[in-house]
Amino acid sequence: MCLAIPGKIVSVSAETDEISRPAKVSFGGILKEINLCFVPEASVGDYVLVHVGVALSVVDEEQAHETLNYLRQMGELDELEPES
Fold first, then answer.
1. Structure pTM?
2. In a domain, 60, yes or no
3. Domain for residue 42, yes or no?
């Protein structure tokens, strides 16, 4: 099964081309670089669903938090949890 994880865009790179629009996204405090090429309307502060490093869609904050809670309950967010 493939999962898309919601994250909040914290920055978008000024260096883009036709197939790459790099951005940094926060997944519960863990920053990852992703590609926004499929969601040209996305901007800093938006929540996006990310799968294998590519944002697939923009979602509202409530939906993002609800999805994260479900994934946390299922134990699917272990790799995104900060190390203690």
1. 0.83
2. yes
3. yes
Q: Using pLDDT thresholds of 50, 70 and 90, give the confidence band for residue 18.
A: confident
Query: Residue 38 and residue 21: Cα distance in Å, rounded?
Result: 9
Asked if 47 and 58 count as a contact pair (C-beta separation under 8 A), the reply is yes
Q: CA 14 to CA 83: how far, in whole Å? A: 31
Does any domain span residue 82?
Answer: no
Q: Side chain identity at 58, as an amino acid letter?
A: V
**CATH number of the domain encompassing residue 32:** 2.30.30.140
Looking from the CA of 1 toward its CB, the CA atoms found within 13 Å total 5
Query: 70: domain range?
Result: 5-77
* Main-chain phi, psi angles of 62, to 5 degrees: -60, -45
